[in-house]
UniProtKB/TrEMBL annotation:
Residue ranges of domain PpiC in the record: 173-271, 280-380
GO annotation, biological process: Gram-negative-bacterium-type cell outer membrane assembly; protein folding; protein stabilization
Alphabetical list of PANTHER family matching this protein: CHAPERONE SURA
Pfam families: Rotamase, SurA_N
Signal peptide: 1-22
Function: Chaperone involved in the correct folding and assembly of outer membrane proteins. Recognizes specific patterns of aromatic residues and the orientation of their side chains, which are found more frequently in integral outer membrane proteins. May act in both early periplasmic and late outer membrane-associated steps of protein maturation.
NCBIfam families, sorted: PRK10770.1
Name used for this protein in its record: Chaperone SurA
Organism phylogeny: Bacteria, Pseudomonadati, Pseudomonadota, Gammaproteobacteria, Vibrionales
Length: 431
């Protein structure tokens, strides 16, 4: 949802960013009042000029001038409101994130940063102006993402239903190498004993015992003399009782025990072909959160957190002890600040940036998110195979993107309707 990147790249392509025009003017005029902010006439003029240049380069036609002006004014009003929302919820884009974003803009424009600076300078835009405009675009995007994300509600049943549809499409080409153990029930054999044995065999398999060896010893299935090996099959080629149990599990998965009319079954996915494996990095981190108040300023919070870091580094107290004493995140504070193993994309952007870039064992400097001020320490990282849950993750992302885009439109309408907007230039024209 980095929609600001697309906007910026379009603007950079014409070497015009929606900042104040660098050319000297007699006096800039306020064109529109938006809440406690303004849109200047130079903002409108620059945006119109940029659109005209881009249209000529791409060979596209523009609407009539009065319609174009109205569209530009509405776009700038919405951008101003979103930037005000970013300020209201405390979004701050530090220089590190800003530099990374500008690097991305240059790369996507097939330029070095130095070439990008030169190209915008040739069009009369100073690099400090460019940086601040990028910073504002990112902040507005983060505010929009944060505030709209809270409005998106996805039910587990929705994810399961879509994941099943996606899985059925994928399963048409995926092949599985299946191992099978069948414990027969009947002819005087006790069902409870068979189930207990099946549970015991599953525990042994998960502990690493050889599947083929156990299949030879215990299986009464049709492939017992082959060590339970059914070979390679697509789901449509499997016995129904197998196909019903396989939900895109990854290589090495043990499935069961599950029952049928003839007894209990255990499956092992010996190998998979045609299914893309998914590995993710999980980060085990801990943090301390302190929130500013009318009494405790941002500067005061930073000073307090810096003192906490000093105490930890000096060995005067442990991170856990100080988290329990000071952290205002009750869930993690009770666990010595521990957040457990999580993928970093679950965190807000500023927090994600810290846990992605910190070395293991390193404590960050104080930084601010929409929740308050934090220090965080990365305790460990690990690679986890998530192939078996990849389809649900994909389904969730599809549903989230659909609903997010719907909610963005609604949210923009709401904040526009509730904003105070006064067209000053109309009044000037009337005078």
């Amino acid at each position: 949802m980095n929609t600001w990147k697309t906007t910026l790249l379009t603007l950079v392509a014409a070497c015009h960013i929606g900042a104040a025009n660098a050319n000297v003017v007699e006096m800039d005029k306020v064109a529109i009042i938006v809440n406690d902010g303004v849109v200047l006439q130079s903002d409108i003029d620059t945006a119109l000029k940029t659109l005209t240049i881009n249209a000529k380069k791409s060979g596209k036609s523009l609407p009539a001038q009065d319609v174009l002006v109205e569209q530009v004014e509405e776009k700038l009003i919405l951008e101003t409101i979103q930037q005000q929302e970013a300020e209201r919820i405390g979004v701050r884009i530090d220089d590190s994130r800003l530099n990374s974003a500008i690097d991305d803009i240059a790369k996507n424009n097939n330029q070095t940063v130095e070439q990008l600076i030169t190209s915008i300078g040739e069009e009369g835009i100073s690099y400090p102006e460019f940086r601040e405009q990028v910073r504002k675009e990112i902040a507005a995007s983060e505010a929009r993402n944060t505030l709209v994300r809270r409005r998106v509600n996805i039910l587990p049943a929705e994810v399961d239903n879509l994941a099943e549809v996606l899985a059925n499409e994928t399963n048409a080409t995926v092949q599985y190498k299946i191992g099978h153990i069948q414990l027969r029930v009947g002819d005087g054999e006790d069902k409870a004993e068979a189930q207990a044995l099946a549970n015991e065999l599953v525990q042994k398999l998960k502990a690493g015992e050889n599947f083929e060896k156990l299949a030879y010893a215990y299986s009464k299935g049709p492939k017992a003399l082959q060590g339970g090996d059914w070979g390679w099959m697509r789901k449509e080629e499997m016995p129904t009782i197998f196909a019903d149990q396989i939900k895109l599990q990854n290589k090495g998965s043990i499935i069961g025990p599950f029952g049928s009319g003839v007894g209990f079954h255990i499956l092992k996915i010996e190998d998979v072909k045609g299914l893309e494996t998914v590995a993710v990095t999980e980060v085990n981190a801990r943090h301390i959160l302190i929130k500013p108040t009318v009494i405790l300023s941002d500067e005061g919070v930073q000073k307090q957190l810096n003192e906490i870091v000093r105490q930890i580094n000096a060995g005067e107290a442990t991170f856990g002890e100080l988290a329990q004493q000071y952290s205002q995140d009750p869930g993690s504070a009770a666990q010595d600040g521990n957040l457990g193993y999580q993928t970093s994309d679950l965190y807000v952007p500023e927090f994600k940036h810290q846990v992605d870039t910190l070395a293991v064992g390193q404590i960050s400097a104080p930084f601010k998110t929409v929740h308050g001020w934090h220090i965080v320490e990365v305790m460990d990282r690990r690679e986890v195979d998530r192939t078996d849950s990849a389809m649900k993750n994909k389904a969730y992302r599809i549903l989230f993107n659909r609903k997010f885009n719907e909610e963005v439109s609604t949210w923009l309408q709401e904040i526009r309707a509730s904003a105070y907007v006064e067209m000053v230039k109309d009044q000037q024209n009337d005078n």
